[in-house]
Design goal:
The complex is a heterodimer of chains A (104) and B (296). Chain A is α+β, with helices and mostly antiparallel strands. In chain A, 15% of the residues lie in helices and 15% in strands. Chain B has 296 residues and is an alpha/beta fold. Helix content of chain B is 33%, strand content 16%. Chain B has ten helices and eight strands. The chains are: A alpha+beta (104), B alpha/beta (296). At the A-B interface, strand 1, helix 1, strand 3, helix 2 and strand 4 of A face helix 1, helix 7 and helix 9 of B.
């Protein structure tokens, strides 16, 4: 059971490869597909290995990827330390968007 | 998109924790693929999120250059000033409204070349500013000219036969001028950088954090040093964490070791404290403490 899950906004990606190189559990690889600007965004090749450490999200210069820890049912775990700051800015951390990939 | 890319990777119920700090409508940003400035912004945003700073009391000031663009991408009160004048603007902001947390986010060319005097004098006066200097070792936005931080023997557009001038060692410069907090990290050290920024927010006085960042388009291309990822691998391999290292020994070379860490963490009365104590001393009874903020 994976401990984390990765989310990628492919349209923001510029294929620098930082996330692929520095992922400690080698979850990601650059895909052969293109985004609309002609870059190869990363895709998840080993979803079961993701620990949800979010190092990919910290390295990403384009804010295009992030990972979060998930509970055994696969739902994103609530962030603890960071949540109050996000709410202070008038934002909620989780959005209920049921469709996968519908908006892009 | 979905007909080309595997839709499994578009997991939309996870929102990036830095999203509240960013002006998402302006992203994708202008920085080149492999540029590290976005990574530093990411670390900065995470430091803000994790340290629970009131975003309403925060102002971010940028100068001109690649890093100067940061002011436009963060959803904070921010100002994109003229070239080199980020620190003077931030000084005015801090003096007019002492309750603000003022962050200066700019590049090496802006802060240490045209704004060099402002940098040393703000450090001398110990004005309560958090300066984040993204050092990509070159003037990137204007075409790769030699900056005061460009290391010896590297090739730039204005030194096609190699740079021969000695370069600035920024931590040494600001420590000598009087900064209370001096640290250096690279874009490889994302968590350390984020922690360091949180620490600087707790300090009162002039804090300076230098972040070494790749410039694949101008610096590395001319010097045949590969792309952004190669620079990150170089940082990983060649950087050594030495907290408290004497700043005189942390100068940068083109391919040598990069000493990173927290070099200076000391306490010294800041500008406002010194001003008040001087006024109290010389005016005595006649000095009226201004408790209310003049500007709001």
């Amino acid at each position: 059971m994976p401990k984390g899950r990765v989310s990628i906004v492919v349209e923001r990606c510029k294929a620098c490869g930082f996330c692929v190189e520095f992922c400690p559990s080698h979850v990601l690889a650059l895909s052969s597909a293109f985004n609309s600007k002609g870059y190869h965004p990363p895709h998840v090749v080993h979803p079961e290995k993701c620990s949800g450490c979010d190092l990919c999200g910290m390295y990403c210069p384009d804010f295009a990827i992030c990972a979060t820890k998930v509970d055994p049912a696969g739902h994103p775990a609530a962030r603890t330390a960071a949540q109050p700051a996000g709410q202070a800015a008038g934002q909620t951390m989780k959005k209920a968007t049921p469709a996968k990939g519908g908006s892009k | 998109m979905s007909d080309i890319l595997n839709t499994d990777i578009l997991d939309t119920d996870i929102v990036n924790p830095v999203e509240p700090i960013l002006r998402s409508d302006r992203i994708p940003h202008i920085w080149c693929p492999g540029c590290g400035i976005g990574t530093t912004v990411n670390s900065f945003a995470r430091a803000l999120v994790d340290s629970n700073i009131d975003l309403g009391s925060l102002a971010l000031v940028s100068g001109i250059g690649c890093t100067g663009r940061v002011a436009g991408y963060v959803k904070l009160d921010s100002f994109h000033t003229t070239h080199g004048r980020a620190i003077p603007f931030a000084t005015g902001l801090k003096l007019a409204n002492p309750k603000l947390n003022v962050v200066v986010y700019s590049g090496d060319g802006d802060l240490s070349a045209i704004g060099g005097n402002h940098l040393i004098h703000a450090a001398r006066r110990n004005i309560d500013l958090k300066v984040i200097c993204v050092n990509n070792l070159i003037y990137a936005m204007t075409g790769g000219q030699t900056a005061p931080t460009t290391p010896d023997h590297s090739t730039t557009s204005t030194n096609p036969y190699g740079v021969f001038e000695p370069s600035f060692n920024l931590p040494h410069l600001v420590e000598a001028a009087g900064a209370v907090y001096v640290a250096r990290w690279t874009t490889f050290h994302v968590r350390q950088l984020s922690r360091s920024i949180s620490e600087a927010f707790k300090k009162k006085g002039f804090s300076f954090i230098e972040v070494i960042s790749p410039c694949p388009t101008l610096y590395q291309r001319r010097n045949k040093m590969g792309d952004g990822l190669d620079a990150m691998k170089y940082y990983k391999e060649k950087s050594k964490v030495r907290h408290g290292a004497p700043t005189g020994e942390v100068g940068l070379t083109m391919t040598g070791e990069i000493i990173v860490g927290k070099f200076v963490d000391r306490d010294r009365p800041d500008y406002e404290t010194m001003m008040r104590s001087q006024f109290r001393e010389s005016l005595g009874e006649r000095f009226v403490e201004q408790t209310e903020m003049v500007c709001s």
